Amino acid sequence: MVQGFTQVAANGYLLDQFLLWDTKGHKDQWGGSEENMAHILLEVLDAVTQVGLRLSPVGYLHLEHDERGRAVFDYLLPKLNHYPFAYVHTGMLEDTPYPHLGGTVTQYIRRLYDGTVIACGGYDTDSGRQVLQQGDADLIAIVRPLFANPDCIEKVRSNQSLTSYSADMLDTLI
Ligand SMILES: Cc1cc2nc3c(=O)[nH]c(=O)nc-3n(C[C@H](O)[C@H](O)[C@H](O)COP(=O)(O)O)c2cc1C
User: Fold this and answer.
1) Disulfide check for 10: which of 14, 54, 108, 133 has CB 3.0–4.6 Å away?
2) Residues 85-115: pLDDT tens digits?
3) Separation of 27 CA from ligand 1 center, angstroms?
4) Is 6 in the pocket of ligand 1 (CB under 6 A)?
5) Which residues are catalytic?
6) Which domains are present in the chain?
């Protein structure tokens, strides 16, 4: 039994590859239908407790987008309500609306999953506050502004402007 991990099923990681159609290869019990594709994640979840799960149902990173993916997540997300999750976390770079999901990935997850939802993907304090006020998520994860501003929280509290993120900054962190 494993306790306390996250980020297992988004952004091209192993379990994400079972959830999205771009895997192409699975002709076994883990491929070919919504139920089969969701099954390996449910098997893993049966073996863990206190898990926080990251999902990216639109396959925007490393895997090809395929709108049939919605049916996999329509099947999977209601099943997640039966697990004692800490949260389900949107795994997006930009949490923008997708017509086939009827909104952002976070809004879509919120509609089908009853537990704590963490929105992520391009939010700042203003847009994050709006998402919380709309009830689309319980918490907001903010990543790149934190890389660019290790003092981000003090700056936001004292209304100072934030340094913009640039990938070049990552070299200075090593
Ligand atoms: C340098 C960097 C590394 C990242 N590594 C991962 C990762 O390993 N796994 C993952 O799911 N997302 C990863 N992400 C994506 C972030 O978790 C997040 O989804 C993304 O940055 C959007 O949030 P933001 O707009 O608040 O930055 C990474 C992002 C950056 C900038």
Assistant:
1) 54
2) 779 999 999 999 999 999 999 999 999 999 9
3) 31
4) no
5) 13
6) 2-142 (3.20.20.70), 144-174 (no CATH)
